[in-house]
Structure formats: structure tokens, C-alpha cells
Amino acid sequence: MRKIYFLMAVAGIVSLYFVSFLYQPERVVLSEIWKYSGKDVVVEGRVKNVAGNLITISDGNCTAFIYWENDGEVEYGDYVEAVGRVGEYGENFAIYAREVKIIRKWDENVISLPYLAENYEKFLNENVNVSGYIYSKYTGYFYLTDEYMEYRIRVYCNQSIPFKKYERVVVKALMLYDPSSLSFHLKICDDSHGVMKYE
What is the mean pLDDT of residues 187-196? Predict the structure, then answer.
């Protein structure tokens, strides 16, 4: 009789184990999370904002909120995956996340200045990691250009940089738009930002 109870217990545990593999939250696009209110989902997107426990992500077409009570290393520009339950957040829907996984950090890939210029809408108000050449230096800022000097962007920097004109560098900074001058610029404004020699 004990063997039967033991076998039934083992069979129950094994069946629960397999059922847990069969239940996977559905992967959805951000524009359709409202359809999954009260259900578990998996979403992906680039971090557009981090304010306390609220993370705003975008997939290029739509934005969504992730409420996450875990303080992690999520930064502007990171590409993340979140698993959680969809619920109301004020007048919007949000994913109340059980897990937020960083798929790719914002500074893992270096992009060229021409790529940044041609795809600026992807990177506006985000951390970027851009390669280019020092064009000219001034107090508080310098200009970064591409190898053919077709593109140029101002980089605000409170520190003096030890690089010479036409030296190739990598700039880690926040990309911003200034409506008063109708121009984009990069701003070195936190500890993860800086200017390094391109290697």
C-alpha cells in the first residue's frame, strides 16, 4: 500500500512539473496589451523612461508601462523582456511584472554617427553609444563628426577631454532634441556616460 501512495505522489509531482512547462504566458505586442487584462503576458521593448518603480518601454510603434518593485540595473535605452500580469494603472494598462530581464544593455553595441542621424527617432531621449571623430573642442562641449565629415553633432560635456582633433572616440551619452535651435545633441550627464578612445 505504501508503494502505491509513493508512486501516486511521484506521479503527481511529475505531472505538475510537466504542466508548469506547458503553461507559458503569451508573448504580445505592446499595442495589444489591453486585450489581455488580468492575464499573464511576455512583452519586449526598449526602455524609454525609468521613474521609481515604473518603467516605460517602446517597441517602435507603441509604448507601455511596466510596474516593477525590484530595483535593478535597468537604464534608458536597455532592451528588456518583462513577464507579468496586465492590469489597470490609472487610465492606462500596465504590466505588473514578476520578472524583468535585460536582453541587451544600451552600451553593448556601438553605432556610427550616420546610423544615429538616419534613425534618430529610435534613440531620442535615450542613452546612446556612438563612434565618431573629434571635430572641434570648446569649453563645455565639442563636436563629433563621421569619417567623411557629412554628419556632425554637438556633445555637451562638463569634463575636459584629452583627445585631439580627428581622433576616433566612442561617446556614451543621452540623445536630446533642442526645439529652440531645432537641433539634436548628446549630453554626458551621469556616471555611465563618457568619452573613450575607440578600440
Answer: 92
